[in-house]
Amino acid sequence: PPRAAPRGKRQRFVDKNGRCNVQHGNLGGETSRYLSDLFTTLVDLKWRWNLFIFILTYTVAWLFMASMWWVIAYMRGDLNKAHDDSYTPCVANVYNFPSAFLFFIETEATIGYGYRYITDKCPEGIILFLFQSILGSIVDAFLIGCMFIKMSQPKKRAETLMFSEHAAISMRDGKLTLMFRVGNLRNSHMVSAQIRCKLLKSRQTPEGEFLPLDQLELDVGFSTGADQLFLVSPLTICHVIDAKSPFYELSQRSMHTEQFEIVVILEGIVETTGMTCQARTSYTEDEVLWGHRFFPVISLEEGFFKVDYSQFHATFEVPTPPYSVKEQEEMLLMSSPLIAPAVGNSKERNSSVECLDGLDEVGTKLPSKLQKITGRDDFPKKLLRMSSTTSEKAYSMGDLPMKLQRISSVPGNSDDKLGSKTTKMMSDPMSQSVAELPPKLQKLSGGGGRMEGHLPPKLRKMNSDRFT
């Protein structure tokens, strides 16, 4: 099909690096919920805001505690008597604000130069020292823990998980398949790695409701376990397009008019840290190549397998039908021959065979004299077979062309021959049965005629009374 004009850059729901293009607005009074989970809020902030809050918190805490020591020294008059050797101050050698700030830093950092120290003549200083120790431990645990969690976030591990730049649609194992490739750049494994795919596409319900970002699940092997990955080398993830797939009616021509986005989510546990990691990417309709296949990247070397990541994103064209799976199935049904008459003939043949089997059973139950009169055991079976063949011929003549039907309707054909054969077969058993009679009965029968002339008078009278 002719190539369509290139489209403008469409807004994506998920970027190639996995970032979701969603902003929450008009929260109103719901912003207070962020303060209720302050630790997670600080971890989710960007690095520049984390560093700013880290420095600001320590600076404010240090200035506040230093000012508290300076206030105690000012209220006790230690600032005016700092150089009096006979006076015992609350904190030795604290005579201005810089010296109070240095005392706080030495106490907080447990450096202890020994020049400034608390004396036993200051109970308020002892209480402030205890408060300083507790507050300092809380601030250190909160801020240092926040920075540690942010530095060890599994998002950075996702940077070493690769996805192919394009997805491809081609035939695999005789089925139209959507494929893309994933890889792990590190030697450490992803434990219990699992992959999922979502199709984001706008649609309208029968009730008229418009769904701008309707999410549909793409089967990448849930029933077979193919979604559980052993991600040691690059793997090609496949989605078979069948009647249950959302791409059942997708063809090469409709690719130019469709608008959809395939979101790929890879989850697993980082082997080194034990934390759960998630990597995401997406493919729009412009990034799905019809009739392409990925280049192989694994080669066997001496004692190991080598992965060539220079061919990780490379594809090449392969012969692929441009029709959708639905169109291919419809063309296959139109090209297949009709088999309904053959099925009907087979049913009639089965019924005729069942009738013959039933007659065989009845024949075996007849008395021995009647079985001898029939002469041959297969006599009724032949008649039924001949009658069944004639009915089959009559049925099949309705399916023949008109010329053949005219030829078969000419008089003197097989129907007359069939009638003569049946009369012969009817006469043959009777003649054989008379020949098998004893000599006295053969004489009485007179060569096959009526035996009433040789009967006794009583029997002839009884017969005449019965017939009259």
Structure description:
InterPro entries: Ig_E-set, IRK_C, K_chnl_inward-rec_Kir, K_chnl_inward-rec_Kir3.1, K_chnl_inward-rec_Kir_cyto, Kir_TM. It catalyses: K(+)(in) = K(+)(out). Helices cover 41% and strands 18% of the residues. It is an alpha+beta fold and 468 residues long. Among the domains are: 31-153, Orthogonal Bundle (Helix Hairpins), CATH 1.10.287; 156-329, Immunoglobulin-like (Sandwich). Strands 1, 2, 3, 7 and 10 form a five-stranded mixed beta sheet that branches. Strands 4, 5, 6, 8 and 9 form a five-stranded antiparallel beta sheet that branches. Helix 2 packs across helix 5. The longest helix is centred in the first third of the chain and has 30 residues, at 47-76. 13% of the residues are buried. Residues 1-5, 339-367, 369-437 and 440-452 have low confidence and may be disordered.
In a few lines, what is going on in this structure?
The chain has 13 helices and 14 strands.
How many H/I helical runs?
Answer: 13
* Estimated share of beta-strand residues: 15-25%
Uncertain stretches of 5 or more adjacent residues: 1-5, 339-367, 369-437, 440-452
Helix coverage percent: 40-55%
